[in-house]
TrEMBL record:
One of its GO terms (biological process) is lysine biosynthetic process via diaminopimelate. Its cofactor is pyridoxal 5'-phosphate. It holds the Pfam family Orn_Arg_deC_N. SUPFAM superfamilies: Alanine racemase C-terminal domain-like, PLP-binding barrel. It comes from Vannella robusta. This is Orn/DAP/Arg decarboxylase 2 N-terminal domain-containing protein. One of its GO terms (molecular function) is diaminopimelate decarboxylase activity. Residues 51-302 form the Orn/DAP/Arg decarboxylase 2 N-terminal domain. The modification N6-(pyridoxal phosphate)lysine is found at residue 73. The active site is at 372 (proton donor). Gene3D superfamilies: Alanine racemase, Lyase, Ornithine Decarboxylase, Chain A, domain 1. InterPro entries: Ala_racemase/Decarboxylase_C (IPR009006), De-COase2_CS (IPR022657), De-COase2_N (IPR022644), De-COase2_pyr-phos_BS (IPR022653), Orn/DAP/Arg_de-COase (IPR000183), Orn_de-COase (IPR002433), PLP-binding_barrel (IPR029066).
Amino acid sequence: WKAARDLIRMRSAAITHFQGNGDLSKGNFFAGKVHDSDNFSVMMLLDLNALARTITDLSAEFPDHFLHTFAAKANPVRKVLSEVGSHGMGVECASRGELLQALASGVAPEKIVFDSPAKTYSEIELALTKGVSLNVDNLQELERVQELVQKTNYNPKTAKNLIGLRINPQIGQGALKGFSTGTSTSKFGIAIEDYAEEIRTALTSSPWLQMLHCHVGSQGCDFSLMTSGIRKVVDLALRINEEVGEKRITTIDIGGGLPVNFASDQVLPTFKQYANTLRKAVPELFDGQFSVITEFGRAICAKAGFTLMQVEYTKQSGGKNFAVVQAGTDLFIRTIYHPDKWPLRTTLLDSSGEKKVSSGPTKLYDIAGPCCLGMDVVAFDRELPEVNPNDYIVLHDTGAYYHASFSYYNSRNPPVFIGFKENENSGIDFELLCNIRTVDDTVDYFAM
């Protein structure tokens, strides 16, 4: 709360300064940034200390032969990728843009994994040329990779990067069908039952294929489902190595997918619980016979982030109370379309950043966004003290998959994204994590 309060107060001081009614205090984070105060009516924050603690917790539960990569799709901001890289993580990418961002972040190429299911010829060539590991998604892509292995003189005996096959273990879906990627009809990977012989032939005849990858889904997949998929892939690796008479498959990429608890601030499930489950179900991952790669995203940074939204108006309709804010479908698309599956906790702050405590009865509010869409409601029936214009509503656990999935619907601006950490004087230091996009930038996006 200290970070939220300090930021709100500095914003107020900066706006006052720009209106010519006061002096901007020395060291104000917003000095030179508040060209238009509307740019700061929605502020996404990331606690960099919390992010570091989460990575420490992850590393503590797994042996040193695990390389933990951060799923860039969860938060592709370059400074975030640099931050996770500074704590020893690699980066998992699913597009050319994510790949280029990861390379620009300073993460070593051999700690980057490229997993796109629709890699172009030039993207594959870029990955191999830059020394990035990649997982082949399908048999047609395998033909392209075969050609480029020869063209780029890729040598598996000397290269630091790996080439693998993404295997669909076809083990069923989790609680969220749309986020399950290991079903019998999934678009991802090569189906282990449907193409068993083709997979065996590829792995036994191509000594440059040294890695197997699977990822069965995220947010809604339980440990049983996740470990069942990994078990099938490890069994495949063991069979191939036995058949070829050597350690052909050296690495297992087990993907990510650890769910996040959005119902409270408690971290559940934990990395410790997942590691213990893996040790029992797939002990081969821990005895050193394989190197292992993980691809966690949401579990790394969701709870390190929150969003501050200034209330623009309050209103009533049919006996229902509304608090109208400047972010909705454009920013919280998963929550808007599936409020039961992606609920976000709320807290109310007053205009000075203090947590608001009701002096009278509380009320139920719908938190309504700005977009021209009837379902543009971020949260329903939240019990809050009386909400007033210029108060701030906090949405918790927004560090992953929200800023990353911003939409320009209604030609709205992306929110500012700010990192913070505690300094040596027990104060809070803030920094912009990516460039501010103004309304002029948005207008230019749709112009020639």
